[in-house]
Design goal:
With 77 residues, the chain is mostly helical. The protein has a domain of 26 residues. It is built from three helices and no strands.
């Protein structure tokens, strides 16, 4: 692990201390868990953004085969 210092408001520190005491964890554990959740949310958001940007990118292409017809042939076999 890498040691990192952060600044909290007094209110943040007090509430974090209360939560830590309630759940029986160290404040540093809670901070790491919160950072992990933030990273997961940001990653999910990026994936969703890429998918939204990619949606429909082939819709106006005329050089592609008729995938519906190809799929229908596969379904018949």
């Amino acid at each position: 692990m890498v040691r990192t210092q952060i600044y909290l408001t007094e209110q943040q520190r007090d509430k974090l201390a209360t939560i830590a005491k309630t759940v029986g964890k160290k404040q540093s554990e809670l901070i790491r868990e919160a950072i992990d959740r933030l990273i997961d949310q940001a990653s999910s958001g990026r994936r969703a953004l890429v998918l939204r940007k990619a949606a429909g990118i082939w819709k106006d292409r005329t050089d592609l085969p008729d995938f519906s017809a190809i799929r229908a042939e596969w379904d018949r076999n």
